[in-house]
């Protein structure tokens, strides 16, 4: 009996190592040429000498809804017509399903060649040898002559570029001026500060409407920290980056007070919002939403009456503001056709005809030339977003590096304590202390 | 007495119908919502009757995406579901008979293994299994989803075991005296007697495979192979505006095959031939 | 005589052979791999490193969310399963007649179970239990007053339990099939003896149905421990409010695929296996006191 167990364990061990080993294992285990039985052995990559280019099959994966799927397929078709030797096999799924699909593919060394990547996952995939470093391809495959350095660097971890910025977003407040009038104000003043926010939230609460629907703590607290010259995570990602808990207490004390004043809903109200159609601003029960610039278009479309956008409260807006990559294009480390994959990414980023199909749906284009070329084709609300990004390019500072591993768990801690504070079950002082302890315990795992 | 005879069925129907309304309301809501203009679904969530009635959700939804109409997704789902169900029901019945009626070495061990399969959360075997199917070069095909069904599904095996064990042993003995081998005993006597269980298993298997999302998400890469469950989720978009109308419309359409199968098979549960075989 | 015994064993294996082959080919290796991984820090992408019992230790000593998820799950299982079974049996008996339109009734009662995990259900359910939803309106009328279902962790859990009761279709169907398997002759004999309905239920229906009840009890318990979809769609994947609906499977999923701690998730899975197996063994062991088989099966 014991022998039998030993045998199984040994078998398992061999199997697991074979299965889970990454590219750094070397030897027989890294031979992964047959990508999902699709990328046939025809594509040796690189060696393109002699008249006919060798046929290449690229797998490309993205998440998104129906409109994105449809226009992306058109872009692919356009590229294939211009490059007859390339065949691109699309693999798309809804956001949730996309990540369920990607993780096993990475574990089995079966990742697609071109991967749409998110800021929240790029550290995990990048630092664990799943994504190729794109630095060698800059201006050697991907033309970056019309793209700002701060934008390109958004996908940088250490000295490696694991994803190419596919579009830009920035934080804003979107509001309904008619609703704002109900608390005696025509528009949000240009130089508003968090103190103004506190007052507005209180006034809205007194008037029986919501000023906002709450702020995503990990995003807006991070902005708050930046305004104060601090960062959420330390540079090496092994602990929190701010050492003064007073900042935590001030920020969360403020959002807690907004809830207690009735200017901001309790978390259970937010949990019942089913979709954008159900948002208090749309239903004229609230004044504003804190969100990313690209979300303005959908909100405006659904609300169907003039909405306005405004930068976040000061002071030190410029220090706090940053341009966020809406998403990245990455190339998998085990791709046999990195050059060809990079060429397609370049097409997606820089080709004007292609971007006339994309129309900024994946975030405001990073290339200034593309951005100008698209202007005449845009709807008025899209123009607003594009203009805001242009403004933000001048009035922002370099984004913090992508979140360290463990950030997802830290975000969950934020959510837990944010909820408890808003239900008034814990004071900001206590939460600050507990949060620091637990978050540091999570991040300490990154020390090796 | 005569009064009692009419009151009783009336009362019965009254109770059943009142409960029915609670049961069916959400489904009704789903169907009715599919006839509302997409952007009014939540605003008018409290009222059941659409005003105005629109068909566009069905038209838009049916167009599907990426050049594949919704018909393609339905066909893909049907292929997977029918092949899986055939395999699951037949193989499970065979295996169940072995466990329920035969004595052999190691039976308890294998039964325990089978139960264990149901108790381990699937999430943790998913990755090793995926890697295994990758080594078999089965990715991007329906094989990883369909083939395992032909080796028995623990839930159905256990279900059929329990049903076989409600059949008196004398049936077997009589059959054996008649010179029936075990296989003939299984096909001739037991299989017909457990028809209600088989029908139940068929209904479950059909529905489970139909709504299964994880299998198709993991193993099907090519959009032309996508199933209904995957396509439905693609009407939703967490970044911008979801097409709720089309999603509800196609959800309603996708209920039809499941309902048809249920309606067809529930008959066998009702008319279970079993009673006729017994004294 | 010996060849007979050998033939007997071989026949047994011929029947269960497909299961053994399937088990060895498709599941045995992944299962043992997950057991091995539960002693490592496997993160899906890099070679796992051996940790010994660290994952298991952390679970019970340094992970308050784990204990919370265990607590929530126990409440969910032991609150929901008995209610769901009782309701399913009640409806099955109600529908086990030859009344007119019975096929239609059955279909209607089964409907909630086939729209199971869909988005539509989550939206519906959220509407029903919303602050101004139907449930609260009824509670107001009854004079109990509204409940903030999305604010109180326990109330939110009950919202999930109600959902599971409402989707009783699969147990009902199995009960229905079981009821059909009870020979009508038994009831006829009882009718001659003049037994009333209650008597018939306890003396004939329950004992004859007991193998099916055992089946449903075990399967529903296992199923309840594994419940993932309702918690995921109702709480938008987070298990809130304040981790009140953080079911075991949901937390396990988060560990495995959101935090990329597959080693830890595997350890969680094996503890879950032990818990469920323990409860199942208890149920099986209790069977000899209340389950009535027409044939000896010998498990």
From TrEMBL, chain A:
Residues 1-18 form the signal peptide. This is ABC transporter substrate-binding protein YesO. The keyword Hydrolase does not apply. The keyword Signal applies. Keywords: Signal. Coiled coil: none annotated. InterPro entries: Bact_solute-bd_prot1, SBP.
TrEMBL record, chain B:
The keyword Cell membrane applies. One of its GO terms (cellular component) is plasma membrane. InterPro entries: MetI-like, MetI-like_sf. The gene is yesQ. This is ABC transporter permease protein YesQ. CDD domains: TM_PBP2. It comes from Paenibacillus abyssi. It is a multi-pass membrane protein. The lineage of its organism: Bacteria, Bacillati, Bacillota, Bacilli, Bacillales. PANTHER family: ABC TRANSPORTER PERMEASE PROTEIN MG189-RELATED-RELATED, ABC TRANSPORTER PERMEASE PROTEIN YESQ-RELATED. Keywords: Cell membrane, Membrane, Transmembrane, Transmembrane helix, Transport.
UniProtKB/TrEMBL annotation, chain C:
One of its GO terms (cellular component) is plasma membrane. Keywords: Cell membrane, Membrane, Transmembrane, Transmembrane helix, Transport. It comes from the Bacteria. It is a multi-pass membrane protein. Its main location: membrane. GO terms for biological process: transmembrane transport. CDD domains: TM_PBP2. The keyword Magnesium does not apply. The keyword Lipoprotein does not apply. It is found in: Cell membrane. The chain crosses the membrane at residues 12-39, 74-95, 107-125, 155-179, 212-234, 267-291. Residues 70-283 form the ABC transmembrane type-1 domain. SUPFAM superfamilies: MetI-like. Belongs to the binding-protein-dependent transport system permease family. This is ABC transporter permease protein YesP. The lineage of its organism: Bacteria, Bacillati, Bacillota, Bacilli, Bacillales.
């Amino acid at each position: 009996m014991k022998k039998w167990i030993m045998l199984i364990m040994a078998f398992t061990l061999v199997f697991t190592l074979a299965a889970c080993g990454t590219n750094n294992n070397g030897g027989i285990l890294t031979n992964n040429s047959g990508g999902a039985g699709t990328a046939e052995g025809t594509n040796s990559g690189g060696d393109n000498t002699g008249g006919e280019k060798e046929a290449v099959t690229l797998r490309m994966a993205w998440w998104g809804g129906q409109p994105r799927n449809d226009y992306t397929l058109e872009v692919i078709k356009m590229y294939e017509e211009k490059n007859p030797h390339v065949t691109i096999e699309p693999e798309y799924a809804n956001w949730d399903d996309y990540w369920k699909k990607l993780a096993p593919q990475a574990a089995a060394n079966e990742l697609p060649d071109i991967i749409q990547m998110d800021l929240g996952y790029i550290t995990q995939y990048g630092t664990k040898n799943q994504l190729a470093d794109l630095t060698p391809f800059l201006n050697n495959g991907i033309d970056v002559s019309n793209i700002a350095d701060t934008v390109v660097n958004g996908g940088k971890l250490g000295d490696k570029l694991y994803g190419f910025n596919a579009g830009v977003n920035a934080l804003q407040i979107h509001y309904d001026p008619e609703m704002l009038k109900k608390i005696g104000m025509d528009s949000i003043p240009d130089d508003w500060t968090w103190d103004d926010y506190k007052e507005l939230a209180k006034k809205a609460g007194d008037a029986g409407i919501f000023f906002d629907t709450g702020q995503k703590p990990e995003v807006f607290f991070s902005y708050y920290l930046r305004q104060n010259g601090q960062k959420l995570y330390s540079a090496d990602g092994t602990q929190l980056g701010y050492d003064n808990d007073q900042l935590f207490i001030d920020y969360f004390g403020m959002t807690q007070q907004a809830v207690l004043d009735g200017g901001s809903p309790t978390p259970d109200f937010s949990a019942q919002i089913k979709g954008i159609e159900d948002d208090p601003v749309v239903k004229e029960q609230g004044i504003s939403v804190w969100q990313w610039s690209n979300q303005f278009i959908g909100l405006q479309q659904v609300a169907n009456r003039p909405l306005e956008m405004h930068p976040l409260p000061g002071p030190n807006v410029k220090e706090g503001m940053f341009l966020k990559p809406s998403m990245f294009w990455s190339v998998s480390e085990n791709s046999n056709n990195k050059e060809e994959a990079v060429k397609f990414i370049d097409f997606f980023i820089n080709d004007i005809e292609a971007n006339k199909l994309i129309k900024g749906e994946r975030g405001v284009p990073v290339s200034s030339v593309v951005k100008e070329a698209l202007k005449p084709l845009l709807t008025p609300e899209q123009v607003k977003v594009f203009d805001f990004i242009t403004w933000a390019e001048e009035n922002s500072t370099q984004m913090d590096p992508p979140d360290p591993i463990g950030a997802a768990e830290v975000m969950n801690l934020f959510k837990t304590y944010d909820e408890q504070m808003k239900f008034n079950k814990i004071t900001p002082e206590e939460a600050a202390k507990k949060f620091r302890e637990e978050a540091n315990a999570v991040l300490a795992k990154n020390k090796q | 007495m005569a009064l009692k005879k009419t009151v009783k069925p009336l009362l019965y129907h009254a109770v059943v119908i009142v409960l029915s309304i609670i049961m069916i309301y959400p489904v009704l809501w789903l169907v009715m919502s599919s006839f509302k203009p997409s952007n009014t679904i939540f605003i008018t969530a409290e009222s059941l009757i659409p005003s105005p009635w629109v068909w566009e959700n069905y038209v838009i939804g049916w167009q599907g995406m990426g050049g594949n109409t919704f018909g393609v997704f339905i066909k893909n789902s049907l292929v997977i579901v029918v092949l899986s169900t055939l395999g699951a029901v037949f193989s499970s019945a065979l295996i169940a008979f072995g466990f329920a009626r035969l004595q052999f070495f190691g039976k308890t061990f294998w039964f325990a293994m089978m139960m264990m399969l149901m108790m381990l959360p699937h999430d943790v075997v998913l990755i090793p299994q995926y890697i295994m199917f990758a080594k078999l070069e089965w990715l991007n095909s329906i094989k990883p989803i369909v083939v395992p069904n032909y080796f028995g599904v623990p839930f159905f095996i256990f279900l059929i075991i329990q049903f076989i064990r409600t059949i008196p042993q004398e049936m077997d003995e009589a059959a054996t005296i008649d010179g029936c081998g075990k296989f003939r005993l299984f096909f001739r006597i037991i299989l017909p007697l457990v028809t209600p269980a088989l029908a139940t298993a068929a209904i479950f298997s059909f529905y489970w495979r139909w709504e299964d999302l994880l299998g198709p998400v993991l193993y099907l890469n090519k959009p032309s192979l996508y199933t209904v469950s995957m396509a439905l989720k693609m009407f939703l978009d967490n970044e911008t505006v979801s097409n709720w109308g089309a999603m509800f419309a196609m959800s309603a359409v996708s209920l039809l095959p499941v309902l048809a199968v249920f309606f067809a098979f529930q008959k066998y549960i009702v008319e279970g031939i079993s009673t006729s075989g017994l004294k | 005589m010996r060849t007979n015994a050998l033939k007997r064993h071989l026949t047994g294996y011929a029947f269960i052979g497909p299961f053994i082959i399937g088990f060895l080919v498709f599941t045995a290796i992944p299962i043992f791999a997950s057991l091995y991984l539960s002693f490592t820090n496997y993160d899906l992408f890099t070679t796992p490193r051996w940790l010994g019992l660290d994952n298991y230790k952390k679970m019970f000593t340094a992970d308050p969310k784990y204990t919370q998820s265990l607590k929530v799950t126990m409440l969910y299982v032991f609150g929901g399963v008995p209610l769901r079974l009782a309701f399913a049996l009640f409806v099955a008996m109600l529908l086990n007649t030859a009344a007119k339109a019975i096929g239609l009734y059955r279909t209607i009662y089964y409907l909630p179970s086939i729209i199971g995990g869909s988005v539509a259900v989550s939206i519906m359910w959220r509407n029903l239990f919303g602050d101004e939803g139907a449930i609260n309106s009824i509670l107001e009328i009854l004079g109990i007053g509204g409940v903030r279902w999305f604010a109180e962790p326990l109330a939110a859990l009950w919202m999930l339990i109600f959902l599971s009761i409402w989707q009783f279709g699969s147990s009902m169907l199995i009960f229905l099939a079981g009821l059909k398997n009870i020979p009508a002759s038994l009831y006829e004999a009882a009718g001659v003896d003049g037994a009333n309905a209650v008597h018939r239920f306890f003396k004939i229906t329950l004992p004859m149905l007991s193998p099916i009840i055992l089946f449903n009890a075990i399967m529903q318990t296992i199923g309840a421990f594994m419940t993932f979809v309702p918690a995921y769609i109702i709480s938008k994947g987070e298990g809130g409010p304040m981790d009140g609906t953080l079911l075991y499977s949901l937390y396990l999923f988060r560990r495995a695929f959101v935090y990329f701690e597959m080693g830890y998730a595997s350890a969680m899975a094996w503890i879950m296996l032990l818990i469920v197996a323990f409860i199942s063994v208890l149920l099986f062991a209790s069977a000899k006191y209340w389950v009535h088989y027409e044939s000896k099966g010998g498990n």
